[in-house]
Amino acid sequence: MITLTDIAVQELKALLIDKKASGESGLRLGVQRGGCAGLQYTMQVSSRADEDEVIEQSGVRVFLARDSIEHLRGCLIDYSSDLSDAGFKIVNPNAARSCGCGTSFEAKEEGVEPDYDSSLDGSNCS
Q1: Rounded CA separation 49/66 (Å)
Q2: pTM for this one?
Q3: Phi/psi zone of residue 105: left (φ > 0), alpha (ψ -120 to 50 degrees), beta?
Q4: Over the stretch 61-85, which tens digit does the pLDDT of each residue have?
Q5: In whole angstroms, what is the distance from residue 42 CA to residue 46 CA?
Q6: How far from the centroid of its chain's Cα atoms is residue 57's Cα?
Q7: 39, 31 in Cβ contact below 8 A?
Q8: Which domains does the chain have, with CATH numbers?
Q9: What is the rounded distance in angstroms from the CA atom of residue 27 to the CA atom of residue 4?
Q10: Which of 45, 55, 47 is nearest to 12 (CA)?
């Protein structure tokens, strides 16, 4: 369903320690309307909500918001340590295209090829 790279696992473990998170905490991942491309990712260190799906890998947990699962199925969570763009990154096979900042995306529609949209080239990201 969702996988994490080795570096993402290491960084998530470090984040949970830094936040003094309980042993039941993990990274809660969801999708909501917004961002440059129509949908944006939400991430927070949290406990599991009642209807979350739980992914466990190498000693860390990712909680997927029930209403976001269709947009997150098959994603890879990575971590970038670039000076100007450090943080968790999501490689999403369900995205037709992503905003230049990588925090928002447009969902794929079966049989529809997205047109180029200059507003998604990264120049309008905030």
Answers
A1: 9
A2: 0.77
A3: beta
A4: 999 999 999 989 999 999 998 887 7
A5: 12
A6: 16
A7: yes
A8: 3-108 (2.60.300.12)
A9: 11
A10: 45
